[in-house]
Amino acid sequence: MARFMPLCAAGKGVWHAYTRTQYQSAVRQIAAQPTLCLNLVRGYATDKKKGKGSQPSSETDIRKVRNIGIIAHIDAGKTTTTERMLFYSGYTKRIGNVDEGDTVMDYLPAERNRGITITSAAISFDWNSHRVNLIDTPGHADFTFEVIRSIRVLDGAVTVLDGVEGVEAQTEKVWHQAKSMGIPRIIFVNKMDREGAGFGRTVREVAGKLQAKTAVINMPMFRAEIVDGMTVARSCGIIDVIEMKAIEWAPNTDGREFKVLELTGEHLEEATKARVALVETLAELDDDMIEKFLEADDDHMAIASADIKKALRRCTLANKLVPVLSGASFRNIGVQPLLDAVIDYLPSPADRPSPIMKSTDPKIPDVPLAKAGTGSALAFKVIHDGHTGKILVFVRVYSGTLITHSKIFNTSNRTEERALQLSRMYADSSVRIDSIPEGHIGVISGTKEVRTGDTIIFSSKGQGPSIPQNQLRSMQLLPIDIPSPVFFASIEPRTASDQKPLDDGLATLLREDPSLQLSVDDETGQTQLSGMGELHLEISRDRLINDLKVNAHVGKIQIAYKESVDPRYVQSTPARYEYSRVLKAGSVSAAATVSIRGIPDDLEFADDSLKAELARSTQLPENNYLTLPEGYELSHSKIDIKDLRTALQNGVSSGLFHGKKYGLPVHSVLVSVSDIELPLDLDSAAPLAQALRFAISAVMDSVPEESRNLMEPVMDVTVIVDDEDIGSVMSDISSARSGRVYALEDESASRPTQDDTEYIDPNLVYSPPDTTLHLSKHNLRRTLDKKLIKAKVPLNEMVGYLKFLRSMTQGRGSFVMAFDRYERASKDRTESIWAKQYE
């Protein structure tokens, strides 16, 4: 093959895009037909003019659809990789650059100014006659909800890893989110052009940290060069383990030109080891591969590439293993093979199990969507289009075909609307379409009531409901979990005339991002916006003022504290409250008797009676619980039991919305309702809610001052440092930040214990040697693992921590954190927190 490369060069370089047609067939035929090389080059030049990379795929064939997401830690190269995918598919004519702020996917001004992805962006393109619907997700922990709602509608995911940093903490988080939903994944080890990048080390980290069985299907290829008198390794291409060929990209080009070469020397030797390991891994997991292996007389090299790919696809779809690829997106190396892997190994919608629809009525059993016999879709994102002023609802259609002007019924809030306009999104632009077929992602414009997580059903041609219509309208797809916010900021209009625009702007923000929450302080009338982090609230503030043009004042970002009752406090007498009101139609009344007790931060320290109460209780927001007397049943001759339950829960939640000492929401208490009195002539449960609200208020008034606790959010923090910095960082966490260190691990340490039957020993997986670790000028983390310090630290002490950590570790330390739970603050900390809160 190598001796025919000059012919390709004479024909202006080889193939301008890496596709199965050019690669798989060419590598087998060129050696036998010397004239074929130039013909292929000329033939592809003709195809290129027709738009080979962007040939329209068949939207009616669901097996040619891939709904994928790019997930990773911040700065791993997600957006850079996506921009190359768009370029090689023919969607864009030039490659966008994150540093220059001209990428297609990061289109918000805040994203381009900060150089990070803030909101997930969807785009569609074609590759090898397949339609790829891709979502580029944020990597910053403050925007976790964007990742959660994107993963919810995906069929597969590409996990991008930084070849220098390996498996980082946020990567673990998004990996386990995808794993919990059964999403098949492939891994792309990026930045192999960087000094100190370690592909083999990263593969071992995937096995150890993520506990994933790996299958290396290509690995980086380097050339040794002399720079400033020193030998360094330069990434130049990849070694295809399945086809046993080398693919080399020309330096300083846009990546469309590359050479397919025969393997020789060390490259051939290592590729042989990799192929043996790949075949043996597949033989352990796939019965068909065992048969092929036996037919080949135990010759790993004799098994056809097509058979390996089929087995690899079956194992990936079954989540038995994870294919691992390598490249350097910024240098335009390895992206086309990654696109091929998306098509070859990630599932189509037809390969995924049918979603389950659950009814709000516990008496109605769950139904697989395939048996429901109706068109259905899940709304996973809502945005306000600044160009048209319309609300755009992103939906994933799970069954049927949604057609323009179809009637849609929202089973979540039981409203009916019409899909006035359908579109396909291309980042911040859209193209109108007549329908969204099954398995595709699209956008509905013109709806007023659809929110994130809502289930939509509609009539579809050739389908009819197989269950009664009234039951169908109560059924919903799995909702999207919304994490609890831990920061807040006050918001108020600058003038009275700004109140209405502020209300409209906040409504738009909350509809777009349900992880934001809005509350109003009854005593001060102050409106407070809560979010996942400081950056999250800063971006929301900027969007409110700059994009939605709201004239408002946003206060200092603060931590969302709560208050509670000391678990040691024992209420002597339950409080009874009778609510009555005179209306035109007559008087209404209700009475309730309640008692309250605090719940310990750690339930291991709860007594048996409390554990028994919690076991049969109903959980409410803010980790609060509600119980009725054992054996007690709600009933009323004129009021439905559902309405009684709703009034009961709403009344308790309303009563706990403001504590008596700090005016904060009450957290971690058990409310026991021992008696309810409702006149038989009532036809509404509203008086019950009011009675409970005032009864709880009376109980909270009776709690002694010393038994009222302030609760603060505590974060699960992982600090990554070098050996020499362990002592100073741990001392700072324990003493200056009131934290509790609970683990110190090597960065390469596996998470599960070896007693776990699913334990994967990273030392037993195949991983190629890391050439760059020996040829790098910088041999810092590259030879020694860093340490992970794991601790529980109050959020208040983590504000501004990154700057302090970098100063303490000479810029080498980093950390990630996630909300763990609320805990009671000590008396000294309470005084300090409260003084700081209102300084």
UniProtKB/TrEMBL annotation:
<dbReference type="InterPro" id="IPR035647">
    <property type="entry name" value="EFG_III/V"/>
</dbReference>
<dbReference type="InterPro" id="IPR041095">
    <property type="entry name" value="EFG_II"/>
</dbReference>
<dbReference type="Pfam" id="PF14492">
    <property type="entry name" value="EFG_III"/>
</dbReference>
<keyword id="KW-0547">Nucleotide-binding</keyword>
<dbReference type="InterPro" id="IPR053905">
    <property type="entry name" value="EF-G-like_DII"/>
</dbReference>
<dbReference type="InterPro" id="IPR009000">
    <property type="entry name" value="Transl_B-barrel_sf"/>
</dbReference>
<keyword id="KW-0496">Mitochondrion</keyword>
<dbReference type="InterPro" id="IPR031157">
    <property type="entry name" value="G_TR_CS"/>
</dbReference>
<keyword id="KW-0648">Protein biosynthesis</keyword>
<dbReference type="InterPro" id="IPR005225">
    <property type="entry name" value="Small_GTP-bd"/>
</dbReference>
<dbReference type="InterPro" id="IPR030851">
    <property type="entry name" value="EFG2"/>
</dbReference>
<comment type="similarity">
    <text>Belongs to the TRAFAC class translation factor GTPase superfamily. Classic translation factor GTPase family. EF-G/EF-2 subfamily.</text>
</comment>
<dbReference type="Pfam" id="PF00009">
    <property type="entry name" value="GTP_EFTU"/>
</dbReference>
<feature type="binding site">
    <location>
        <begin position="190"/>
        <end position="193"/>
    </location>
    <ligand>
        <name>GTP</name>
    </ligand>
</feature>
<dbReference type="InterPro" id="IPR009022">
    <property type="entry name" value="EFG_III"/>
</dbReference>
<feature type="binding site">
    <location>
        <begin position="72"/>
        <end position="79"/>
    </location>
    <ligand>
        <name>GTP</name>
    </ligand>
</feature>
<protein>
    <recommendedName>
        <fullName>Ribosome-releasing factor 2, mitochondrial</fullName>
    </recommendedName>
</protein>
<comment type="function">
    <text>Mitochondrial GTPase that mediates the disassembly of ribosomes from messenger RNA at the termination of mitochondrial protein biosynthesis. Not involved in the GTP-dependent ribosomal translocation step during translation elongation.</text>
</comment>
<feature type="domain" description="Tr-type G">
    <location>
        <begin position="63"/>
        <end position="350"/>
    </location>
</feature>
<dbReference type="InterPro" id="IPR000640">
    <property type="entry name" value="EFG_V-like"/>
</dbReference>
<dbReference type="InterPro" id="IPR035649">
    <property type="entry name" value="EFG_V"/>
</dbReference>
<keyword id="KW-0342">GTP-binding</keyword>
<dbReference type="InterPro" id="IPR027417">
    <property type="entry name" value="P-loop_NTPase"/>
</dbReference>
<dbReference type="Pfam" id="PF22042">
    <property type="entry name" value="EF-G_D2"/>
</dbReference>
<dbReference type="InterPro" id="IPR000795">
    <property type="entry name" value="T_Tr_GTP-bd_dom"/>
</dbReference>
<dbReference type="Pfam" id="PF00679">
    <property type="entry name" value="EFG_C"/>
</dbReference>
<feature type="binding site">
    <location>
        <begin position="136"/>
        <end position="140"/>
    </location>
    <ligand>
        <name>GTP</name>
    </ligand>
</feature>
